Amino acid sequence: MFIQTEETPNPATLKFIPGRPVTGGAPVDFPTVESSVGSPLARALFAVDGVSGVFLGSDFITITNNGAKDWAVLKPALLGTMMEHFVHNRPILEPAAAATTGAGTEEDSEIVLQIKELLDQRVRPVVANDGGDITFHGFSNGVVYLHMKGSCAGCPSSTATLKSGIENLLRHFIPEVTEVRAVR
Question: Where are the chain's structural domains?
Fold first, then answer.
């Protein structure tokens, strides 16, 4: 098995591509070791000293380095942990940890449905290439609230991505949108 790595725009994160499905669907974010209870893989990665976040995408894994160790030291330990996990065919997620997608509900307004569709079709695939995800959190009084995950969380260019990219896109297609803000 060969696992590729890619740098992301966020210097605190590194993207690992195992060449096989990870979640196979919706991404799952584990921003803390406590949140990793539903994923044997995330728990194993948090056991590596220096890991402060794990993000599982459909076919990639993004790891956040807490800064205590250089990537040159941390990367081999992470690759070994991933290889061990995949070679022994251990589960990625426990059944109860299956994440829900940003699909609409019956209660979503037409504007919210349009926002979610634009995010799912035009924004999320782009940020997934950089090892992250952006999910819809809410819409109120013209403001769209988004949650940034994986390499997008804490990225130095996240404000530019929100304002210059996503806000302009949403305002262009949905006149009711006046602003985009990140939530934690």
Answer: 4-97, 110-183
